[in-house]
Amino acid sequence: MDTRTSSLSQLPSRVGAARIGIGGPVGSGKTALIERLIPAFAARGVSLAIVTNDLVTAEDAERIRRSGLIDPARVAAVEAGACPHTVIREDPTLNIAAADDLEALFPDVELILIESGGDNLASTFSLDLVDWWMFVIDVAGGDDIPRKNGPGVLKCDLLVVNKTDLAPYVGVDLAAMAAQAATARAGRPMALTNCRSNDGVDAIADRIVSDVLFR
Amino acid sequence: MNQPSIQLLVALQHADGQFPSGGFAFSQGLEASSSLAGKLGVFEFAGFVDTQIRHRWANADRVALVRAFRLAGDLDALAELDREVEASTFVEGLRSGSRRNGAALLTTHGRLGTKGAAAYRAMVRDGRASGHLAVVQGLAWQAIGLDEATAVAIGGYQMVASLGTAAVRLGLIGAIDAQASIARALPEVEAAACRPVADDEALRSFAPLCEIAVAMHGASGQRLFSN
């Protein structure tokens, strides 16, 4: 019997575009961040494609396709079957297949952004799917989010705290929230952004170009 | 005490809902049928499952799986069978869902190194094959050394179990109730699985209410599941 169930360490390495995940709670600004990153990567000469996971059909994918920022054919949508965790972690095959198809369709693609459907603090990306991932939270979600020690906040390669402009209006001490996040993550990378005004987005693009694309 | 065979253990591995196959994102018309119950008559989960077993799986998906299994890795012949599945699946939502689910399962088997999977994935990508789920199941489960009856059993079990988990996520039934429903459906799967399949048997299905629901739902743009 040929069971063909080799261990992970025996699997062949994948060669192709780098794949990065963007996860985080509903409404934290994942799609807004992508809309800001698209021109930032274009300015850096990075050929891009995008996969979105929507809770319901293809709303985020359509929003990005209609943005005029990227060739709509470079945006693929994957429905999450009411399970945004599963489609990026336990069973990422639909996302892997979508990214593989984009790579085959656009051989020049260097970077594929994979946006998770809105989820909670426990969501993490399978390393079968992505090489590097970030987790987006926002100040309006509450300054106690970093203290909750959710796996999304703790395990991501980059924690993004978005909507910094709202801090004074929702009673959040941004400096204290950032300090708590830094403590929870033991000093691992973090970025503060206001995607509406593009604050902090260039630094994220530079980090990805450096840490993921090794330029 | 008898020891479990490697055949049984491998079957358990590949039947397990944790095996990455993409199947969790497909409801095979369950979401559409349940959400359109007011327009299409009363919806009842057990009846839906029974229809799927008797009128879709038994004479279409199961037949495609068995025929694919017997082709023993002949990729051109599998592509021909795939065209039959494509032609005999009436509604676009079910057709594209079956192709996407097949591509997801091929992706896992391609990465695991299952014989023929990567080559067939390439054929799907360049348009020489459709990659429908039942065909891919037959290809993959034959390649890993399962016997035909076990492959059919896994296919039938997964079909019923995936409907159960989809129903739980849709809030139609509870998780324990889902297991009771699956248990009640398994004898029907067994009865269907026992029927012989000719090497050239045609694919037949008849589930018009489900197909109408999928067609209507697909146009609505509001779906949790791929179909």
From TrEMBL, chain A:
One of its GO terms (molecular function) is nickel cation binding. Gene3D superfamilies: P-loop containing nucleotide triphosphate hydrolases (3.40.50.300). GTP binds at G24, P25, V26, G27, S28, G29, K30, T31. One of its GO terms (cellular component) is cytoplasm. It is found in: Cytoplasm. The keyword rRNA-binding does not apply. Residues 20-189 form the CobW/HypB/UreG nucleotide-binding domain. GO terms for biological process: urea catabolic process. Keywords: Chaperone, Cytoplasm, GTP-binding, Nickel insertion, Nucleotide-binding. Belongs to the SIMIBI class G3E GTPase family. UreG subfamily. Homodimer. UreD, UreF and UreG form a complex that acts as a GTP-hydrolysis-dependent molecular chaperone, activating the urease apoprotein by helping to assemble the nickel containing metallocenter of UreC. The UreE protein probably delivers the nickel. Facilitates the functional incorporation of the urease nickel metallocenter. This process requires GTP hydrolysis, probably effectuated by UreG. This is Urease accessory protein UreG. It comes from Aminobacter anthyllidis. The gene is ureG.
TrEMBL record, chain B:
GO terms for molecular function: nickel cation binding. Required for maturation of urease via the functional incorporation of the urease nickel metallocenter. This is Urease accessory protein UreF. The lineage of its organism: Bacteria, Pseudomonadati, Pseudomonadota, Alphaproteobacteria, Hyphomicrobiales. The keyword Chaperone applies. GO terms for cellular component: cytoplasm. Keywords: Chaperone, Cytoplasm, Nickel insertion. Its main location: cytoplasm. It is found in: Cytoplasm. The keyword Chaperone applies. UreD, UreF and UreG form a complex that acts as a GTP-hydrolysis-dependent molecular chaperone, activating the urease apoprotein by helping to assemble the nickel containing metallocenter of UreC. The UreE protein probably delivers the nickel. It holds the Pfam family UreF. It comes from the Bacteria. InterPro entries: UreF, UreF_sf. Belongs to the UreF family.
